[in-house]
Amino acid sequence: MGITIQEASRKSGLSAHTLRYYERIGLIHEVDRGPNGHRTYAGADLDWLDFLTKLRATGMPIADMCRYAELRRQGPRTTAERRRMLEAHRERVRARIAQLTGDLGVLDYKIDFYNALESQ
């Protein structure tokens, strides 16, 4: 038995609007519907939404996410391409982390500078 879109929204942290949008653009498959016609999300759907949320949080563009989802639907023959996509994205994430680490160092330097000025 699946859960409602409201429950899926609460568990995934995504709004119901975003869940419907993700379905409309093909990021998630057409969700099953109950006898009342309402969407019902299964555990596997929530796992997929969790993964999509992580891709988005790490800056993967929606177009790339859609491409990944399409490859996933094509099955095991696309595993190498999906892996390559994730490896390329991982490198972009690492580069962003390195940039943020450098930026954080500059902020720390300035904060230390102002602390030193204030303690004089």
Folded structure, characterized:
Helix content is 72%, strand content 0%. It has 120 residues and is mostly helical. The longest helix has 40 residues, at 79-118.
Looking at this protein, list some descriptive labels:
120 residues; mainly alpha; 5 helices; 72% helix; elongated
Number of helices: 5
Element-level helix/strand string: HHHHH
Strand content: under 5%
Structure classification: mainly alpha
Rounded radius of gyration (Å): 20 Å
Spatial gap, N to C terminus: 67 Å
What is the 3D shape? elongated
The residue fraction in helices comes out at over 70%
Overall average residue pLDDT: 95
Extract low-pLDDT stretches: none
User: Main β-sheet, in a few words?
Assistant: none
How many extended strands?
A: 0
Write the layout of secondary structure elements.
Blueprint: H1 5-12, H2 16-25, H3 43-57, H4 62-74, H5 79-118
Helix pairs in contact: 4-5
Short description:
The chain has 120 residues and is an all-alpha fold. The chain contains 5 helices and no strands. It starts with a helix and ends with a helix.
